[in-house]
Amino acid sequence: MKSIYRKAERGRVIGGVLLALLLGASVGAAGTDGLVWRPVVTAFHVHSNVSESGETFDQLAVEAKASGIDAIIFSDNFLLHYEYGLFPLRGVIRRTVELPSVLTIGVDRYLAEMREAGLRHPDVMLIPGVEVVPHYYWTGSIFSKDLTMHDAQKNVLVLGLPRADDYDRMPAAGNHASYEYGWNTVGLLWPLVLVPPAIWLINRRVERRLGTGWTFVVVRERRPLPGVALLAVAVLLLINNYPFGTPLYDTYSDENGLRPYQGLIEYVRQRGGVSIWSMPEARDFSRHDYGPLGVVTAKTDPYPEALLKTSDYAGFGAVYEDTVTVTDPGGVWDAALMAYLEGRRGNPPWGVGEVAYHKTDSAGKRLDNVETVLWVKERTPAALLDAFAKGRMYALERRKDYGLVLKEFSLTSEETGQSAISGETLEAPANAPFRVRVEVSSTDGQRRPVLVQVIRSGLVMSSTTEITPFSVQLRDVVPQGTGGYFRLLIGAAAHRIVSNPIFVRSRGSLTGALP
Question: What is the C-alpha to C-alpha distance for residues 465 and 442, in angstroms, rounded to an integer?
Answer without folding.
Answer: 15
